[in-house]
Amino acid sequence: MTILVTGSTGHLGRLVVERLVARGAAPADVVAGARSPERVQAPEGVRTAHVDYDRPETLEPAFAGVDTVVLVSGSEPGRRTPQHRAVIDAAVAAGVGRIVYTSIFGGDGSPLPLAPEHVETEAALRASGIPATILRNGWYTENYAADVARARETGEIAGSAGDGRVASASRVDFADAAAVVALDDAHAGRTYELAGDVAWSYDDLAAAIGEVVGREVRFVRLTTDEHVAALQGAGLDAGTAGFVAALDGGISAGALDTSDRTLSRLIGRPTTPLVDGLRATA
Q: What is the pTM (predicted TM-score) of this model?
């Protein structure tokens, strides 16, 4: 069975390729697709292919002879839906047997501003008729790398998430899940909500960052308006500042708070603890 992973020079795609081989896939049966294939760093024997979401003419040739495509969602909000549709259309045209898609936790029930494009992609997959496995990934612990760096200097993290809790996991945990389901067609037609084993508060996050950076760190609670103003003061434009604050608003509303252990059951081990994930980013 040949498995192609898109976005293989990205943080998640690279790890999916590595975990496929670690989980027993023959390197020759794994294809690392990327916009710049020459930049791919993969286990020896893994093939590469030119896969550019914005250049549909690269897609169908890359998918020829591929059984499963792991569609790692695009990284640019506002462009994901047409990019993903191009991948889906090319996979159907090439006769790909299944798509594994990295969606968002909660799907159409998520209040996060990232959700609509993922929901649209899930709808496009259903309409395509191609068998699919939907991985609704929760939050990556690595999303807090900048907070770790900032807290090292200031002793503070700030945001408008309030008492919201986040069941984060490290990218390698989510990549491992993608490898598990890509290797077994029994997962076709399934949707999995994936999150870390422990849901933590931002006070917990501050304490964990403090352990990593070796100093006391406190969480400064901001209102949404204060958060937007602080982000603009740090140089973000109004649209981006509003988007980031809206993410915290979704977290405050419980978008990422769960006790579901589907991720750890899929990968056969506990998810990476918060402190360990943060330490890896530092």
A: 0.96
